[in-house]
Amino acid sequence: MTLVTHIATIAIVVETKSVELMPFSLLLFGFINAIVWMAYSLIYEINIYLFICSAIGAFLTASEIVIYALYRHKVKTCKVKSA
């Protein structure tokens, strides 16, 4: 479910060209969290399933950080469409 949230957030930011919905501190700590879980899955208890999930999370969070860097100066108010 959280993977869908990453992809939906990326889609909204690219569509609106506004990073208003993506706080940088949340992205940074999410990336650090994914890296720590990847390290845990390799060092203490070799668990490939935990490693794969953490690697996907780290990749998606890193892509959000890149998109944040691209659109951070293009600030405009964003109206999210409700479903």
Automatic annotation (TrEMBL):
Keyword Protease tagged: no
A Gene Ontology molecular function term of the record: sugar transmembrane transporter activity
Domain of life per record: Eukaryota
Residue intervals passing through the bilayer: 21-40, 46-71
InterPro entries xrefs: SWEET, SWEET_rpt
Keywords, sorted A to Z: Membrane, Repeat, Sugar transport, Transmembrane, Transmembrane helix, Transport
Location of this chain's protein in the cell: Endomembrane system
Keyword Zinc applies: no
One Gene Ontology cellular component: membrane
Membrane-related topology note: Multi-pass membrane protein
UniProt family annotation: Belongs to the SWEET sugar transporter family.
This protein's name: Uncharacterized protein
The organism's taxonomic lineage, starting at the top: Eukaryota, Viridiplantae, Streptophyta, Embryophyta, Tracheophyta
